[in-house]
C-alpha cells in the first residue's frame, strides 16, 4: 500500500479538522467525564477497528484518550488510515 504524500495528508486533515499530524501519525484526542466513560469509548473504538481490520494506537490517561493512525506495515500514513479516520469521526462524534 502506498504512503500518502504531505499534500494528500494535508487535504485529508483539512476535511477532518479534529485530527492532526503528530510524529508521523494521524492523531485525535478525546476527554471524558471519568475513566469509565473513557473505557466505554475505547470499547467502541475496538469494535469499529475489528470490523475494519485496522487498529489505531490507543493511549488512555484516566479520562483522556488519544487515537493514532499509521500503517506500520507500510511505514507511514496510507489511504487505509484516512478511511479509518473518517470512519471513527463519523461513528464517534
UniProtKB/TrEMBL annotation:
Keyword terms of this UniProt record: Lyase
Pfam families tied to this protein: Pterin_4a (PF01329)
GO molecular function terms attached to this record: 4-alpha-hydroxytetrahydrobiopterin dehydratase activity
Catalytic activity of the protein: (4aS,6R)-4a-hydroxy-L-erythro-5,6,7,8-tetrahydrobiopterin = (6R)-L-erythro-6,7-dihydrobiopterin + H2O
Example GO BP: tetrahydrobiopterin biosynthetic process
Name of the top EC class for this enzyme: lyase
Protein's UniProt keywords contain Lyase: yes
Coiled-coil portions: none
EC number: 4.2.1.96
Similarity remark: Belongs to the pterin-4-alpha-carbinolamine dehydratase family.
HAMAP family in the record: Pterin_4_alpha
Name of this chain's protein: Putative pterin-4-alpha-carbinolamine dehydratase
